[in-house]
C-alpha cells in the first residue's frame, strides 16, 4: 500500500493565478489527512477526495496562508454533508483565529491544540510535531505510516530549526524554500533553496520537494540552488502533483 503526498497548493503568503497557498493531502489506504489548508486548497482537495472521506486536518500555524480554507470545509461538512467529529489539530492561536470565522467548531470539528514534540495518530498515520524558527508558534511535522515510510514537512521556518529533531530515515522531505537565494532571504525567518537543500542533505533524506514560493519567483533558481546544496536533483512542488512512496 502506497503512502501518497498530493500538493494542493504551494504558493507562499498569497495565492498565485494558478496556484493556491500551502496545502497537502497525505493518504495511506483509507486514511486521508489534509496538512495545512491555505486559500484555494479546498477547491483542489475536492479533485482528489470526497470531503466526508477526510480523516482529519493538521494545521502548522496561524498565518492565514496556511489555514483559512478551514472555514469553507466547516461550511461544507456542516451544512451540505451533515458530518460530525472531524479531528483538527493546530496551535491554540490558530484555534482562536479560526473560531472567529466559523464560530463554534463542534460538533462538526473536534479541535486539539498542538505543542512541541506532541505525538498523535489519525487513522493509520502517526504525526510528530516540532516547533520551528518562525514568527508565531509553528510546528513542522513528521508523518509515519505503518510500513516505516516517512514524510517530513517543515511548515514555515528560519534556518535555526534543525530537521534532525524529527529523526532520520526520512523518505521525503517537503521543505519550504520561500527564497531562491540566501541574499533574498537575508535574516527573515524563512528558508532559501540552499537552506532547504542543506537541511535535507544533513539527514540523508531520500527525496527533497521544495515548496512555499512567491508566485512570481523564478523556480529555475530554486531548483538549481536547492540541488547544489542537496547534492542531487530536487523536485519543485506543483499543484495537484502526487508523489508515491
Question: What this model shows, in words?
Answer:
The chain has 245 residues and is an alpha/beta fold. It has one domain: Metallo-beta-lactamase, Chain A (4-Layer Sandwich), CATH 3.60.15. It contains six helices and 14 strands. It has helices at 41-48, 70-80, 92-102, 182-185, 193-202, 219-230, and strands at residues 3-9, 23-28, 31-37, 56-58, 86-90, 109-113, 119-122, 125-131, 139-144, 150-153, 172-176, 208-211, 235-236, 242-244. The strands form two sheets. A seven-stranded mixed β-sheet has the order 6-5-4-3-2-1-14. A seven-stranded mixed β-sheet has the order 7-8-9-10-11-12-13, with helices on one face. Strand 8 and strand 9 form a beta hairpin. Helix 5 (193-202) packs parallel to helix 6. The chain starts with a strand and ends with a strand. The model has no long low-confidence stretch (mean pLDDT 97).
Secondary-structure blueprint:
Elements (H helix, E strand, L loop, with lengths): L2 E7 L13 E6 L2 E7 L3 H8 L7 E3 L11 H11 L5 E5 L1 H11 L6 E5 L5 E4 L2 E7 L7 E6 L5 E4 L18 E5 L5 H4 L7 H10 L5 E4 L7 H12 L4 E2 L5 E3 L1
Parallel strand pairs: 3-4, 4-5, 5-6, 10-11, 11-12, 12-13
Antiparallel strand pairs: 1-2, 1-14, 2-3, 7-8, 8-9, 9-10
Helix pairs in contact: 5-6
Amino acid at each position: 500500500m502506497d503512502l501518497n503526498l498530493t500538493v494542493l497548493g504551494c504558493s507562499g503568503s498569497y495565492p498565485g493565478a494558478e496556484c493556491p497557498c500551502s496545502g497537502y493531502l497525505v493518504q495511506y489506504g483509507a486514511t486521508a489527512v489534509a496538512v495545512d489548508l491555505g486559500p484555494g486548497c479546498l477547491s483542489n482537495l475536492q479533485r482528489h477526495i470526497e470531503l466526508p472521506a477526510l480523516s482529519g486536518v493538521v494545521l502548522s500555524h496561524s498565518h492565514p496562508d496556511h489555514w483559512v480554507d478551514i472555514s469553507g470545509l466547516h461550511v461544507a461538512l456542516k451544512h451540505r454533508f451533515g458530518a460530525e467529529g472531524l479531528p483538527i489539530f493546530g496551535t491554540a492561536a490558530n484555534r482562536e483565529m479560526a473560531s472567529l470565522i466559523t464560530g463554534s467548531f463542534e460538533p462538526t470539528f473536534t479541535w486539539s491544540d498542538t505543542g512541541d514534540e506532541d505525538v498523535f495518530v489519525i487513522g493509520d498515520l502517526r504525526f510528530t510535531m516540532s516547533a520551528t524558527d518562525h514568527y508565531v508558534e509553528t510546528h513542522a511535522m513528521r508523518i509515519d505510516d505503518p510500513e516505516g515510510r516517512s514524510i517530513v514537512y517543515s511548515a514555515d521556518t528560519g534556518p535555526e530549526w534543525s530537521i534532525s529533531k524529527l529523526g532520520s530515515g526520512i523518505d521525503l522531505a517537503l521543505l519550504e524554500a520561500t527564497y531562491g537565494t540566501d541574499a533574498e532571504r537575508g535574516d527573515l525567518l524563512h528558508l532559501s533553496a540552499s537552506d532547504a537543500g542543506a537541511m535535507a542533505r544533513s539527514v540523508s533524506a531520500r527525496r527533497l520537494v521544495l515548496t512555499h514560493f512567491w508566485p512570481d519567483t523564478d523556480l529555475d533558481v530554486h531548483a538549481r540552488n536547492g540541488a547544489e546544496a542537496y547534492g542531487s536533483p530536487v523536485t519543485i512542488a506543483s499543484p495537484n502533483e502526487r508523489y508515491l512512496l
